[in-house]
Amino acid sequence: MVHAGTRKFACLLGVLLCACSLLPAQPRQQAPAPLNVSGQIVIAGQSIPYLIRHLPISSFPNLPDELAVLLNRRGCLIPQTYEAHHPENVVHASLERPGSSDWAVLCSAQGTVSLLVFFSSDPARLLVLSAAPETERLQAHDPSGVLGFNWGIDPASPEQVRQAQAGLLRRPAPVDHDALADSLVDQHTIYHFYLKNAWIVLEMPE
Fold this sequence. Notes:
Layout: H1 4-22, E1 36-43, E2 46-55, H2 65-73, E3 78-80, E4 90-93, E5 102-109, E6 112-118, E7 127-133, E8 138-140, E9 147-149, E10 151-156, H3 158-164, E11 179-184, E12 188-195, E13 198-201
Parallel strand pairs: 2-9
Antiparallel strand pairs: 1-2, 2-3, 4-5, 5-6, 6-7, 8-9, 10-11, 11-12, 12-13
């Protein structure tokens, strides 16, 4: 003979099980991307190893909160050049106009590196200046033969731009705010400059 209390407990258990089955399935959380990425690429018929180191957005605590949210939403990690000794490839400068507080970032996500710019005047928007597969930004740098990441960005003050243009026969008018130096380590640097609502590349000596 089944007691009334037992019957009531069994009934409640059945209701709970039924209710649980109706709950929406919880999405499976995606594993975070690894901070160090290694592999092999084929160059001139030979398989060459490479290693790319990254830092998470949390390694740059001075980033504005709204920018950190946008970068995390894109799944960004910040790639570091093979010669990095401290966190790099996040730039704070006056890129839009004199006195503005703007940011530029190299964002690595799903094998592609993008050069992103964030103007404080338009905090919901990220501008993409350029992008390339990570494996197109590698070069040899030590006797081991392992390739490392070679793309770096830095702020360039008006005075630094002026010095970089010193070899020109006709020097352009001085710029009035910061440029963005875009470099391949030990190779060359181009200078992006925001002028009249558009990005240009400043003239430099060859």
